[in-house]
Amino acid sequence: MVPLLYLGGLVVLFLLWIKVKGLDYVIVHQRWIFVCLFLLPLSVIFDAYYYARAWLIFKMCSAPKLHDQRVRDIQRQVRDWRKEGTKTYMCTGRPGWLTVSLRVGKYKKTHKNIMINMMDILEVDTKRQVVRVEPLANMGQVTALLNSIGWTLPVLPELDDLTVGGLVMGTGIESSSHIYGLFQHICVAYELVLADGSLVRCTEEENTDLFHAVPWSCGTLGFLVAAEIKIVPAKPWVKLHYEPVRGLENICKRFTEASANKQNTFVEGLQYSLDSAVIMTGTMTDHAEPDKINRIGLHFKPWFFKHVEGYLKKDCVGVEYIPLRHYYHRHTRSIFWELQVLTHNRFYLCLIGSGKSGGQVNNSKFLLCFSNHS
Ligand SMILES: Cc1cc2nc3c(=O)[nH]c(=O)nc-3n(C[C@H](O)[C@H](O)[C@H](O)COP(=O)(O)OP(=O)(O)OC[C@H]3O[C@@H](n4cnc5c(N)ncnc54)[C@H](O)[C@@H]3O)c2cc1C
């Protein structure tokens, strides 16, 4: 009873404080409250639901059957738009808060929203070395499935939430792009619903002009309903080599050399000031030296860019073995270094796992991440 009274008292004080300060003030200046009490629990439930759903659907093999039905539904929406007299433009009905971009797409309010509810992995064909996916399948989902069966995408953009549709229609790059190119370069076929409601498939040989026009078209040519993407065999570990480099010219030189060496499966540079950076090169491997294993994706580990900065501060090179999936999503927890500007609240930083309960985040204004696509 007594704890409940305390809790009630706290809630009343909290509400009074909001009344005095104003809701706007609290949300802007004390955003950790909103994030910790609402956003984080909701995100956990949201992610758990979608991972469980994806797993179940793939195990039951129900995605391919549902796919044709979903395509027909999109065709119906497009034809309805035509029947209504094509009064406004069409756009995907995905709400802005679901995308990785912070942009608020005001056009979604005035355009005809076509609901594309397609978020499944349809088929993994290891003979052709191709995976067929729906446009809202995201990178976290793709690595969870492919890596567990020994395969991966040659170019796997880091953030879990990036979708195949966004990466094809927008753009995608990764630390393996010096070998494989951009995300679109590993795609072998697209299936689209066009503005007349027809369904077309395009590849290097079939509807070639459309195939080459789709990447970066931002949905202006049609609605993507499926993509076939190359896959390559994966190994469980990434052997990552860290090298601090000083001087802008040196940084460019070392990065160019590292990218030119195709033995390096992964090449990435994190730049912490105009003339200091850490260049990382990596290869996939089956075995790891136990004393050099670093599971960087675990909740209590430091954010990746902070961990890398350690090599710069100590001015020493280093080698680590990182589980493949942890490597791919190394920037997810901290959204590169963007999350540090959200709040410095200790409780919040503990919950999201910055690996530092002291809230000592880097205030560096100069941070740059580079991967090479020559
Ligand atoms: C914080 C941040 C971090 C990023 N990190 C990376 C990174 O690590 N690696 C990387 O390569 N890129 C990165 N990007 C860029 C990112 O890849 C692109 O912005 C990408 O387009 C976003 O994908 P999304 O899934 O959020 O798609 P959305 O923003 O939803 O879509 C992007 C575009 O594609 C169109 N589109 C999406 N689906 C369809 C469809 N089915 N049919 C037709 N059109 C469609 C949309 O209309 C929109 O024009 C980052 C961007 C941000 C903001």
From TrEMBL:
UniProt-listed PROSITE patterns: FAD_PCMH (PS51387)
One Pfam family of this chain: FAD_binding_4
InterPro entries: Diminuto-like, FAD-bd_PCMH, FAD-bd_PCMH-like_sf, FAD-bd_PCMH_sub2, Oxid_FAD_bind_N
Pathway assignment: Steroid biosynthesis; cholesterol biosynthesis
Alphabetical UniProt keywords: Cholesterol metabolism, Endoplasmic reticulum, FAD, Flavoprotein, Golgi apparatus, Lipid biosynthesis, Lipid metabolism, Membrane, NADP, Oxidoreductase, Signal, Steroid metabolism, Sterol metabolism, Transmembrane, Transmembrane helix
A GO biological-process term: cholesterol metabolic process
Highest taxon above the source species: Eukaryota
Membrane topology, record value: Single-pass membrane protein
Subcellular location: Endoplasmic reticulum membrane; Golgi apparatus membrane
A molecular function (GO) term: Delta24(24-1) sterol reductase activity
Cofactor(s) needed: FAD
Catalytic reaction list: 5alpha-cholest-8-en-3beta-ol + NADP(+) = zymosterol + NADPH + H(+); lanosterol + NADPH + H(+) = 24,25-dihydrolanosterol + NADP(+)
GO cellular component, one term: endoplasmic reticulum membrane
Domain FAD-binding PCMH-type: 58-234
Entry EC number(s): 1.3.1.72
Transmembrane domains' residue ranges: 32-52
Family affiliation: Belongs to the FAD-binding oxidoreductase/transferase type 4 family.
Stated role: Catalyzes the reduction of the delta-24 double bond of sterol intermediates during cholesterol biosynthesis. In addition to its cholesterol-synthesizing activity, can protect cells from oxidative stress by reducing caspase 3 activity during apoptosis induced by oxidative stress. Also protects against amyloid-beta peptide-induced apoptosis.
Stated name of the protein: Delta(24)-sterol reductase
Species this protein is from: Astatotilapia calliptera (Eastern happy)
Record lineage: Eukaryota, Metazoa, Chordata, Craniata, Vertebrata
